[in-house]
Each structure stands twice: as C-alpha cells, then as structure tokens.
Specification:
50% of the residues lie in helices and 13% in strands. It has 570 residues and is α+β, with helices and mostly antiparallel strands. The longest helix is centred in the first third of the chain and has 28 residues.
C-alpha cells in the first residue's frame, strides 16, 4: 500500500507538535477509533482525527500524554457511541452536545439503505474509498492477525484508520445540510436517544448466572436424550438432516406436500408444526431447545461482564421505520413467557419495573383512520374482543373465545399489509374463512380500508410528482417505498409513529432524571432497575410521562408491572 502524504501516524515528538498545531486550526473534527474488538471488555488502541484532507492516527498511549482540549471541540463520528464508549473507558470524557453522528443522519435520510461508512462513502464521496479495507483484510489473514494483535505501526492498519474520519467529515458535509433543512427536530431527538442508550448499555442488566447455567445444561441434556431416542427408535443419526428426517417420515406413511427448490422434501417450521408424528414433534423440540440454549442462555454467560451484568447493544434505528432493536445478544427475538426472562434480575436492593404500551399499533390505526367503530372498540378496553363481537354479530363473545384471536390477527394483517394467504396461515384458518372474515371486518370498520387506500393513493401521487413513493410520520420521519410496494407504507407510517412517540417519552423521562434506572427498551416496553426505597416515586414519574392522552384521537396508555424480582415475573 502506497504511503499517502495526508495520513500521519503520530509516534514521535515532531509529529506530536504538528498534530497539536493542526488541532488548533480546525473547527470540525472527524473522530474514529480502532479497538481490540467490539465486546464490552475490549479497549481502544488507536484514535484517529481528521479534517477534509488530513488524517492523524494517534496511539492511545500517546494521546493520554497530550492536552485534552480537543474533547470540547465539535466532533463528528460514524456510529459515534461506539467510539465514545471506548474513549470513556480510556479516561477521555467528551460532552454529548459536542458530537454529531453521520450514521444517524444516513438512517434518517435513507431508511432501508446500507448505512455503513464504506457503502455510504462509495456512493456519495468516492467509489474507491473502501479499497484500503480489502488490502488490510488480506494482510491480516496472511499474518493471522486480529484487531488486537496487528502491530499499530503496520501502514495498512493505521492508514486505514486515519482515512475513516476523513470520509466521515466529507460525509458530514454532504448530509448535515439536508438534515438541518428537512429533519432538524427528528435528528435532535435521535441525538438525545443516542446519548440515553449509551448510558442504558453502560448500566447493563444483571444476570442470574446459576439459573442461566442450569437452563443451558438442562436443554443440552434434553437434546441428547431426544437424539438418542431418534436413533434407537427411528434410525435417524442426525435430526438436523432434512433428508434423514423426511425419509423416516415417508417410510412410516406420513404424507409430505412441500418440496425445496432442489426437489427434496422440505421440513421447515411450516411443515413440522403441522405434523403430530413423534419424529416431527421431537425434531421441533430439538430445534427449539437449541435456539434457546445457544441464542440466549449460552450467549448470556459468554457476554456477561465480571459482575454478571449483560450490556446489550440497542440499535436505535434497527428497523427502517425507526424502531429500536436489541442485539448482542438478540433480545429483540426473545420468546414469549418467562423461561428466558427469568435470567434477568434487579441489582442488589433493587426491584424491576416493566412498563409497556397498550396495543399501540391498533391505537395508531384508529388515530389515522378515524374509523368510529375502531375508536369505540379501543375505548371499550379490549379492542380484539369488541372487534370479534362486531364481525360475528355476537355481543356475548368474550376474551376467552377463540374467535378473538382471529380478530387480533386481522387487525395486525391490516397494519402489516398481509395478504389473504398470510393472514390465513398466521390465524390458523382456511383461505375461505379468512376471506369471509376480512370482508366482514371491512364492513364493520370501513374507515380502515379507506385510510389504507388513501395512503397508497398519496404515495403513488408523490411518485408521479417527485419520483419516489413515501409517507411521513407526524414528527416528519421519512419512509420511502418502491412504487410496486406502496401497501407497505401503512405499516411504515404506523411503526414509524410508534417509534417517534416511544423515543419522545424516553427523552421526557430523561429530562426528569429517570435515565439511570433504564435497563432495556424492547418492542413497546421499557424495563427499569430501581432502588426499593424510591421505587414508587420513580414509578409515578414514569407513568406520568410515558402515556400520551392528548396527541391522538384515542389515548396511548401504558400498563405497568408490580415490583419484580425477575423480569420473567411479569
């Protein structure tokens, strides 16, 4: 890799002097870090600074000896919480009001597109901007280096690092004017959320290691038992082999109806879940146990810190709609029930509080559609029961009636733009019955269909006039769609609005000092870890600030748990 004149490794007195002189001449600084890895326990090795032309790579042990006035400068990063986390671990405290994040800008401006620095730089700055990354990866593979062992003096390493903040500043120049012109309030909301989630991750969520280990061992033992039974009774050596499983089923007279693209018999969940044969039941349990063990219990034990706290990452715009998602570990897909949630405990002398929005998507559908029947159903207290009563013309139908589930599935089918086939599958009913139900649903709630048609009409009109079909949430969050998929925009509008209102509530709570007690935002729920002696005081503030009774045609209410000794007690 050729030496580039505008990239400098700061490792001697002369370069330190030049670096400090440069620091005094710039107003906006690109910031980046290279770390030993991406886990909570990793540390920073190299800190990079740049303007539009010059990049400086400073080993952290050198930076520790220098004046820290740069911490108060306007700093621009790409996924800036990552860098601030490791810098803070190293003793560098940077005020949040001084930082900007080009990743947040890109996620607001281009929802649904790749938001990594390199793809954005290739698209908006220079198509060759990622070339040095491939050179570095080849060198690391050749020498069997990882991010903690590659020598800092390796030119491909520090030059790669020093180039990133240059790209970030140039990307800032491209994106920031559009952000301030079109999405100023939304960007400031996301900046606040970025800061709050930083503290949520740093706090962490305590893990019951004994319970977690016990469940991991129990699931592992159960799978070994099932595998032994599969071998001795059915001759199946590998329950994960679709070929072995389907052959064994066919030999025993089980009819299969679905094939893979290669012509083999399929055995995915749509097949196995509808079979009652012991082979299918055992394979399903093995897969379920493996998922629970590896994705949750084993991951919890591997990722916890020395004090048994799990510091999950929350991607604040993990979904294109602006919804948050929890990763590392993937708690966004945590199964219903208590088995996994029982791994989570309050801190010593604390109790957990879980507060969840009530049916927020359906309430927003009522708000946007203005359908009188849907508004009435929501105000009745149990929207799905009332929906079923109206569709079936049965005022005696109660919440235990299985027809209520069909009504619930229908409401979400409308929100997510599901077709008849998908609705029938999720509701567990026939295509004929699904069609009939939706026809009756539309008769009872005509405003819903009218609203959905209006969203599509408006989006297509925008496509004709502006070249892109899109919706915007009341806060201004932009949600584009391909012109052939405008049916998705109803979901984008509702989910995007739900994301906005949850985040606005989080900021309201932050302003009242509640952030130190937040430990996990997941779906429409926030979990708090609160000292027992102030539990009711914090609960009172939370229940005052999370609901919204005034902004929508129906109130957006919340349900709070009792004080919990485990998250699974909810």
């Amino acid at each position: 890799m050729a030496v580039v004149d505008n990239l400098i490794l700061v490792n001697n007195d002369r370069d330190i002097a030049k670096f400090l002189q440069w620091l005094g001449s710039v107003s906006v600084i690109g910031l980046d870090t290279e770390t030993t890895g991406i886990s909570y326990e990793d540390t920073v090795r190299l800190v990079q600074f740049a303007d539009r032309e010059t990049g400086w790579a400073v080993p952290v042990d050198v930076l520790e000896t220098l004046p820290r006035y740069w911490c108060g400068y306007t700093l621009v990063g790409h996924n800036i919480p990552f860098d601030l986390f490791y810098l803070q671990k190293a003793g560098f405290n940077i005020p949040w009001d001084k930082v900007h994040d080009t990743q947040l800008m890109a996620e607001i401006l281009f929802p649904g597109d790749p938001h990594g620095l390199k793809p954005l730089a290739k698209k908006y700055i220079d198509p060759a901007s990622a070339d040095n990354q491939s050179d570095l990866k080849k060198l690391m593979r050749k020498n069997k280096w990882d991010w903690s062992t590659i020598p800092i003096e390796t030119p491909e390493y520090w030059m790669y690092g020093a180039m990133d903040p240059i790209l970030t500043v140039k990307l800032f120049d491209k994106l920031y004017p559009a952000i301030t012109q079109k999405f100023g309030a939304l960007y400031e909301l996301e900046r606040d959320i970025s800061r709050i989630l930083f503290h949520v991750k740093k706090h962490g969520f305590k893990i019951d290691t004994d319970y977690t280990q016990k469940m991991s061992d129990k699931l592992g033992s159960r799978n070994e038992e099932l595998k032994g039974t599969m071998l001795t009774m059915f001759g199946i050596e590998n329950p994960n082999s679709n070929r072995q499983v389907t052959d064994a089923l066919i030999q025993r007279g089980v009819s299969l109806h679905k094939k893979t693209p290669s012509g083999q018999w399929a055995f995915d969940s749509t097949v196995s879940d509808n079979l009652k044969h012991p082979i299918a039941v055992a394979v399903s349990e093995i897969k379920r146990n493996t998922k629970l063990k590896s994705s949750y219990f084993d991951n919890f034990l591997e990722m916890k810190d020395e004090n048994n706290y799990l510091h999950a990452s929350v991607r604040q715009m993990g979904a294109r709609t602006g919804r948050m998602s929890v990763v590392n570990p993937a708690l966004q897909t945590i199964p219903r029930g208590s088995i996994v949630r029982n791994s989570f405990l309050p801190s010593d002398e604390n109790q957990l509080l879980s507060v969840d929005y009530d049916q927020v998507e359906m309430r927003l559908m009522a708000h946007f559609s203005k359908d009188p029947g849907l508004i009435e159903a929501i105000r009745s207290g149990d929207i799905h029961t009332v929906t079923a009563q109206k569709v079936y013309n049965d005022p005696l139908l109660d919440k235990h009636d299985p027809r209520r589930q069909l009504a619930k599935n229908a409401g979400f089918a409308k929100i997510y733009g599901a077709g008849i086939k998908r609705f029938a599958e999720t509701a567990g009913t026939s295509i004929k019955k699904a069609k009939h139900f939706l026809t009756e649903y539309d008769k009872q709630f005509p405003g819903v269909s009218d609203f959905m048609k209006q969203v599509e009409y408006t989006a297509l009109d925008r496509y004709q006039r502006e070249g892109i079909a899109y919706v915007k949430t009341p806060l201004g969050r932009y949600q584009p769609s391909d012109s052939t998929q405008v049916y998705r925009l109803v979901n984008y509008l509702i989910q995007g609005t739900a994301a906005d209102l949850f985040k606005q509530a989080i900021v309201r709570m932050d302003k009242e000092g509640i952030t130190p007690y937040m430990v996990m935002p997941i779906h429409d729920e926030m979990v708090f870890d609160i000292p027992k002696d102030i539990f009711r005081d914090v609960e009172r503030v939370v229940l005052d600030l999370m609901p919204d009774s005034d902004s929508f045609v129906v109130p957006l209410t919340c349900e709070a748990s009792e004080p919990l000794e485990r998250w699974g007690d909810k």
